[in-house]
Amino acid sequence: MGKFADSWRSHLLTTLSGDGDGRPTWVSQMEKGSDRGFFGPGSASWAVHGGLATMVAGIRALLMQTLHPGAMAGVHDWSRYHEDPLGRLSGTIRWLVTVTFADTETAVRESGRVAQFHGRVAGTYLDAQENERSYAAGDPELLSWVHVVFTDAFLESHKLWGGAIPGGADAYVREWAKAGELIGVQNPPATAAALQSQLEAFRSANILKSDERVADAVRFIRHPPLRRSMLPFYRIMFAGAVASIPREYRDMLGLRRSWLPVVWATGAVLTFVRLLLGPASSSEDAARVRITRLEAAEAAEAAAS
Fold first, then answer.
1. Could you tell me which of 273, 118, 270 has the C-alpha nearest to residue 185?
2. How does strand 122-126 pair with strand 132-136?
């Protein structure tokens, strides 16, 4: 691999994980623990979150989240996304990866860290009817919105650019409901149909809103402060993410689907990234080390009894 590719790979890994080798300390800790975790090999969550379609899913989820004025107010008032967007991104990735691949104790602890941060987030916003409302990041409505659009983004992106999902879409939605429960989501959807029903309920109830804050966030997501050599690839993935969003939400976001074959082009970009990063994620590798150790200990104990 040439110097350019090595540099590009290191920058990409730093962007995604905060570490140039793609293996920060919190990933290495996944080798420890006393159980398989909430999911394990062969699960729908491992299949979806271990794939590179997550890169596009993250863009789609961020775009969709902006449409709830309470969620947008929390980001506007409390997030440092303009000053430190990559730090916010790597923090979200840390939670996602930890809940997916770590042992249950670590997953619960990481979710508690996220919930503790959310506990400080509160303020007021104007809802879709221009009425002033108070908000807190732990409000059931906001937690539900973030969980629903997150789950929907990762599921739909994997269906476009990933492989088969063990157990199908329902299995993924059902499994990832556990992640929602860990951060306080009440009654998270357990089937793909329920997921779509909850998502549509937000739109049909006129809860969602498009305003200048949304436009500002969309501009930032469209033009993030990435290395110049990465921007062409990001722009393709952004266009792919936009193409994957249903038209009614694209219209609210002020976005149009490109007439170019961006879904195919996004798949090509993801294939290129996979060639750079290798066939498996470091998080999954660490989880397999833990599980192999536990299985060996169980086998030794059974043989001794």
1. 118
2. antiparallel
Q: Which H helix or E strand runs over 133? A: strand 132-136
Residue with tokens 């619960």: 108
- Report the alpha-carbon distance of residue 11 to residue 118 in Å, rounded: 29
Helix (H) or strand (E) holding 125: strand 122-126
The backbone region for 163, taken as left when phi is positive above 0, alpha when psi lies in -120 to 50, beta otherwise, is beta
pLDDT tens for 144-195 read 999 999 999 999 999 999 999 999 999 999 999 999 999 999 999 999 999 9
Q: Are 283 and 27 in contact (CB under 8 A)?
A: yes
262 neighbors 236 (Cβ within 8 angstroms): yes
Residue spans per domain, the chain: 3-22+34-293
The answer for residues whose C-beta is within 8 angstroms of residue 260's C-beta and 6 or more apart is: 239
Alpha carbons 81 and 79: distance in angstroms, whole number: 5
State the Cα–Cα distance between residues 199 and 303, nearest whole angstrom.
51
Q: Which residue has the tokens 């420890």?
A: 32
Distance, first Cα to last Cα, the chain = 51
Please tell me whether residue 191 adopts helix, strand or coil conformation: coil
Dihedral (Cα; 223, 152, 179, 87), 10-degree rounding: 0
Distance CA 58, CA 241 (A): 9
Q: Which two tokens stand for residue 78?
A: 């409390």
pTM, two decimal places: 0.89
Q: What does the DSSP 8-state code read for residue 228?
A: G
**Torsion angle, CA of 31/34/38/44, rounded to 10 degrees?**
50
| Residue of 156, 177, 143 whose CA lies nearest to 59 | 156
